[in-house]
DNA sequence: CATGGGTCATTAGTGTACCTAAACACCAGT
DNA sequence: ACTGGTGTTTAGGTACACTAATGACCCATG
């Protein structure tokens, strides 16, 4: 369709362009993953626990727009590796609160820094306006993702 | 605001923000997928074949930054579903050219349109300025992904 | 022209991450 | 004490990526 002047990769309109860029970045992130470490999702969850404190399974699954069952699995990888623990909610015993262990907190920080290293390097090489453009686009696209 | 990536105070640095946004969008795309249809990767490959004509396995895997073996699997899903076919390259018989069948071409167009529908709807609701911001960010991030 | 090194594609086996469906435990209202 | 709703888990299945190993082919060199 409309081949706009922005160097269209594969998709037709802006939607296709966004989709294609996101898919490419996502794969790139995955390939940049240090060996022997946790998966992308598990690490995101760990980071979230570290930053926002203990949360229930449904809180986590809602945030990631994932079925509770999927999140249960992801969290299992964390708990069985000793990076997170379950605690029954004293007020409502159907609920389970997940929180990081000290090792989990440490890993969250270390792994995240390492993983963002190459990305940050590239981003810092851009002009401040370009960085600002990306920051703004993240907000806009984040809103769409949450809609 | 967050101007730092290594010792982030509250929010993540720009790198973390980008990573998080991309992951969320990616999951959202996946969840928006109509049932019984092909996966995201397979569909991207099919679209690419449809737009750029027959290609070899390595061309496809290079483009998606994926191991050849992974791409082999993906195209297997396409061929066994009747959406693509293999043709031996007459010039170099180590190579195999993949191309879409008529049904594949049809599906590529239909599915892609359907998949971009909600995304395009949201994007068109933004101001032209914001759309431009996103387009620019896509180019910038696309370059980083390809680096 | 044969052999051997490089390239292209595939198969086999593994791991992560998602899904649905179904079970189980618990809370609250009638 | 049922009953319906909520929160979590288990079981089974799919998609997509990886590494390692294999087979098929091209080309160059001896």
Automatic annotation (TrEMBL), chains A, B:
Secretion signal, residue range per the UniProt entry: none
Q: Which Pfam families match?
A: MarR
Q: Which domain of life is it from?
A: Bacteria
Note the PROSITE patterns from the entry.
Answer: HTH_MARR_2 (PS50995)
Domain HTH marR-type, chain residue ranges per copy: 11-146
Biased-composition ranges, Polar residues, are 70-79
Transmembrane region(s): none
Which terms does the record give in the GO molecular function aspect? DNA-binding transcription factor activity
Q: Residues annotated as region Disordered?
A: 61-93
Q: What is this protein called?
A: HTH marR-type domain-containing protein
- Record organism: Paractinoplanes tereljensis
């Amino acid at each position: 369709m409309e081949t706009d002047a922005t160097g269209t990769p594969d998709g037709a309109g802006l939607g296709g362009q966004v989709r294609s860029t996101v898919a490419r970045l996502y794969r790139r992130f995955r390939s940049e993953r240090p060996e022997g470490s946790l998966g992308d999702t598990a690490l995101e969850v760990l980071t979230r626990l570290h930053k926002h404190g203990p949360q229930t399974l449904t809180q986590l699954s809602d945030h990631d727009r994932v079925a509770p069952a999927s999140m249960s699995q992801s969290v299992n990888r964390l708990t069985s590796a000793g990076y997170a623990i379950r605690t029954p909610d004293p007020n409502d015993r159907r609920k389970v609160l997940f929180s990081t262990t000290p090792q989990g907190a440490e890993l969250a920080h270390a792994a995240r820094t390492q993983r963002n290293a190459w990305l940050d390097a590239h981003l810092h090489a851009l002009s401040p306006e370009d960085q600002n453009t990306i920051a703004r686009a993240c907000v806009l696209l984040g809103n769409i993702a949450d809609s």
